[in-house]
Amino acid sequence: MELQQIYRLPEEELQIQEIYRYFNEDTRLSRSKAARVEFLTTVRYIQQYLKPGDRILDVGAGTGAYSLYFAGKGYPVCALELADNNILVFRRKLTPELPVELVPGNAVDLSRYASESFDIVLVFGPLYHLHKPEDRKKCIDEAKRVCKPGGKLFFSFISNDMILLTEFSHRPDYFTNGEYDKETFALEDFPFVFHTVQECRDMLTREGLHLLHQVASDGASELMADKINAMDEENYAQYLRFHFYLCEKPEFLGMTNHLLFVAEN
């Protein structure tokens, strides 16, 4: 199914199902050195707050990159995913010894989980897809509800401003013919939903969350993918150190395809 056809599907859930038949989520975070920057950065921040015995909820778990990583380290993980294709791929990776409970479900309804039952809540996909402000609010509120007092919540967003440059790197005529408002530079919210750094801050603080970190989780890695992928291991390790040094600097926050916000409940 072409992207234009996905756009015409009447229900948001149907659109999400088709998007993840079109996009290969399973290799997105692992296919190259440049692609791994986002995953390695996100894991680094999660590990700062994990304690022995912590329970993790992975909302919008995709094909299981984060769930399987932390379950492999012995943390019990509940994973919830909407897209059937992602669930099929995830299930194939599960083995009996991994402490993962994978269920189909929607991020705006976490009623299967008791309030204050998780130490760490990951919301790494849903806010890419929720077009209605009331649904985004519900997603955040549900994540808050199931997180213990003092627990940590991790939210990811797609950054409006960097995507224009990323698209330009692929399409030389993008600034003339691209799908964005030529006055405000707001992207058309298709096939994903885009936010500025300030919009992300406002969305989370309105719901009473205390922000601990605001992170440019992949930085310029997609724009510089060819150069990063050509690095030897020594140079790549030093590039990652530089990225970690840079990724919370306020002046660089918007210059990333993916934003990571860490909050305390």
Explain the layout of strands and helices.
Elements: H1 3-7, H2 12-22, H3 33-49, E1 56-59, H4 65-71, E2 77-81, H5 84-93, E3 100-104, E4 118-123, H6 133-146, E5 147-159, H7 160-170, H8 174-177, E6 194-195, H9 197-205, E7 210-216, H10 225-229, H11 233-246, E8 258-264
Parallel strand pairs: 1-2, 1-4, 2-3, 4-5, 5-6
Antiparallel strand pairs: 5-8, 7-8
Describe the structure.
The protein has 265 residues and is α/β, with parallel strands linked by helices. The protein contains 11 helices and 8 strands. It has helices at residues 3-7, 12-22, 33-49, 65-71, 84-93, 133-146, 160-170, 174-177, 197-205, 225-229, 233-246; strands at residues 56-59, 77-81, 100-104, 118-123, 147-159, 194-195, 210-216, 258-264. Strands 1, 2, 3, 4, 5, 6, 7 and 8 form an 8-stranded mixed β-sheet that branches. The longest helix has 17 residues, at 33-49. The chain is globular.
- The poorly predicted ranges are 1-10
Rg computed from alpha carbons, rounded to a whole number of angstroms: 18 Å
What is the molecular shape? globular
**Number of helix segments?**
11
Strand content: 15-25%
Largest sheet: 8 strands, mixed
Provide keyphrases for this structure.
single chain, alpha/beta, disordered N terminus, eight-stranded mixed β-sheet, 8 strands, 265 residues
A few lines on this structure:
This protein is an alpha/beta fold and 265 residues long.
